[in-house]
Amino acid sequence: MTPSLFRSRLLGLFYVALASVPLSVSWFSERWRFGLLLASEPLMVLTVGVLGLGLLAGWVAWPRTARRLDKLIGLHVGALFLSTVFSGNVLVSAKYFATILLYIGFGYGVQRVLRLERAEWFRALGALALGTGLLAAYALLQHAQIGISYTFSYFVARPFLEHGHTNLTVILEPLVLVLNMILLYHARAQQQRGRFMVTMLLTAVLMVVAFSYSRASYISLLAQALLLLAFSGREAGVRLLLPWAVAGGLVLSAWQVINIVHPHPPTATETNLLHELGSVSDFSSANESNAERMSRWVFSLDLFQQEPVVGAGPATFPDRYLEFVRHDPAHPNYTPTLRRMNAHNLYLDWLAESGALGLLSGLLLLGYLLVRQLRWVFRGQQTPAQVGFTVYLLFFLLHSFTQDFWQEPRVIVLFWLAIGLQRHYARAAMLPSATDTAALQPSVASADVSSR
């Protein structure tokens, strides 16, 4: 097999796997699910395996040098491995550690080795957007048929981890950002017809988000909107206000219509959108979701104090927290949320499960990405790519205060893709200036010679 043929086939497999990632949900039957701790996503495993085979067979070249980001990823992986070795449950931690390697290998390793070109990047993002769009359409259709039920949002997006927890909305937030970027900068979206189409797509996605009752996503999207307005500038930001107003009005209207058609949806909670928006800051026992988050944050700090250096072990938080709840009669028993057992905070989860080493290595990795992005932003004239990547990275970091994304393939795969794509755009932006500098040097030298 020739290297070019191998590369094209590997890319085809990569695109198919990307499209399947958002669709890896419990839609119809338990038997169609694959366990995160066993294989996660078979197509991801296959893609990484084929990439490894290509490297060993010489069909694709090994990276020539190790970048600083490669070293920081290796440092964080090393910290997780050390925590796994000293884990209170080595088997559980080892399985989790293997899945983290898989996500990094698929989301970062494939594009790092193949060095994707611009057209290949767009195909990859298009494949991921296709799967995400199909998931949103399916969710919207289900709400129209059964009514607004927050339990559906958790069911359809249930992660592969037994005690994992991911709301459908965190998969859709990047799609909302992409649609907002199109409204801001795409030429066709500046025309009336194109603007109408994109606004309707944005409205449909925001309906799915609103119907999920996810307060964390409400805050995250608000932060995304504020960041967009801040980084895009006043004149560009004004172009978003009318589509947002139209989308908000349609979401509220659809909420009322669906509640009239389905007054008794299959959920134990009857509420409305305005009530959910108003309860974001309520951490009392009346708001079990927020109260449970606070309980897990406090327990994470307690768990860190027991094993401050290497932590309790990756993926051991669910069992440790469940044991704490069952043996603490003073702890309220929030039955609906007991099975969703992560710490609901990426940084506290690192601290509790991997100790100071895991948190420090993770913060070094994320901090390097943030500094790299800010240096690119303030280096020259602001571009749409700079705005999009800055907003994405900042709202990912902010949302991580209320959610642990490191265990969720449908979020973390996109994160690694975005990191690679950001470097691709940053290098492309720096190449013209480097070329101009190189071209300028001979002319300066010749001018010096002539002056002599």
TrEMBL record:
Pfam family, one: Wzy_C
Key word Secreted present: no
Protein topology in the membrane: Multi-pass membrane protein
Residue intervals of the O-antigen ligase-related domain: 204-360
Subcellular locations according to the entry: Membrane
InterPro entries cross-referenced by the UniProt entry: O-antigen_ligase-rel_domated, WaaL-like
Residue intervals passing through the bilayer: 42-60, 72-90, 96-114, 121-141, 168-187, 194-211, 217-233, 240-258, 350-371
PANTHER family for this protein: LIPOPOLYSACCHARIDE BIOSYNTHESIS PROTEIN PA4999-RELATED, TEICHURONIC ACID BIOSYNTHESIS PROTEIN TUAE
Name used for this protein in its record: O-antigen ligase family protein
Species for this entry: Hymenobacter monticola
